[in-house]
Amino acid sequence: GYFPDAPSARATAHLRLLTALAREGSPVGVVFVAMHTGIREIRPAVSIDPVFADACAEAASAGVRFEGRAVEISPQALRLGGPLPVHVQSPGSQYPV
Questions:
Q1: Residue 41's CB: how many other CB atoms inside 10 A?
Q2: Sheet strand arrangement including 78-84
Q3: Of 20, 45, 47, 56, which is most buried, counting CB atoms within 10 Å of its CB?
Q4: Do 26 and 36 form a contact (C-beta atoms < 8 A)?
Q5: Element (H, E) at 30
Q6: In which band, very low, low, confident or very high, does the pLDDT at 95 lie, cut at 50, 70 and 90?
Q7: Which residues pair with 2 in a beta bridge?
């Protein structure tokens, strides 16, 4: 699964704030919740928002933790499922499209 599905200056601003907090020593993290049962891993959508993808990599380098979670979907309920890997890369590296 890729995030975001459209360019998101807001998401990038949030990551920059978390990056600054991490650099000051605060424990911070991001949790991506995949609202689709076919998702097996989560990556920044570099082809949609490369600025966000670079902000993710910079945040990870600063110590921001990234976690992903699946959702179990049924007609009766949505339940938080198991962990999903989140892949971010170093700033300036080549991202898969």
A1: 12
A2: 29-34, 65-73, 78-84
A3: 56
A4: no
A5: strand 29-34
A6: very low
A7: 43
